[in-house]
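[Automated response] Your request has been received and processed.

Submitted sequence:
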Amino acid sequence: MRPCTVLLDDQTMMHFWLPRNRQLNKPNVALIHGYGGNSRWQFFSQVGPLSRRFNLYIPDLLFFGKSYTNRTDRSDWFQARCVGEAMKTLGVDRFSVAGISYGGYVAYRTAEIYRERVEKVVIVSSGICYTDDQKAEELRRIGRNPLELLLPENPKDLRSLMNMTLYKYDPFKWLPNFFLRETIQVMFKKNRKEIMEIGEYLLTKPADSNLGILSQETLIIWGEKDNVFPVKYAYQLQRHLGAKAKVEIIKETGHAVNYDSPVALNDFIISFLSFLH
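Generated structure:
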């Protein structure tokens, strides 16, 4: 894959990883990362297998990686419009979207806005469909400001983040604190203020009582042991979407499905998106 920066206007640019040679016989797929870090490290286990089957387009969402805007809109709607317009600029008229966690919010909004262009949708570990009471309950369960974990400033909080999102293993368990401090500096310091504002928007916005029902076929993938968004939210989203949605639960897997069970995740995505109507 090759890097590319798309200028959307005089204030906004979005960085992508693109196929080196787009093949017309392959479906186009936009793969959207979650909160924190960037697409390059979140999808390192997906790029190889998925790029062999699809024309893969992987954006860095605004303020993550190399994407940036001077605009003040921090909503998932704005991120989705940027993804959709960037895909149009790249000459991709029709495509499917797959998003994990926060990226699932953006994928969902992209499918809402661009109903005629988005063919299928994959939502992974993304608590899109919830009530205000459920949000309050989950925040109480965490027991502290989630942004302190999502944007860790010290090794202890980074270890807590890994413990919350991973079930099978913790890659940082045996690493010394000085290495974790360097990791925090690289992954969580750039555009910290703006990323914090995105998190605050997500935490404070009320539940969407008029959440749109997608017209596209939708695959919902969840880890059985998700400690961020419990598996009940997968079925809640399925009930909201109706007959066009199906759920796949991956056993012994936490919130970060892309790390805990990358092979199963890749297989589900390939099976679902390989055949478009």
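Summary generated for your ticket: Residues 76-89 form the longest helix (14 residues). The chain has one domain: 2-142+209-273.
If you did not submit this request, please reply to this message.
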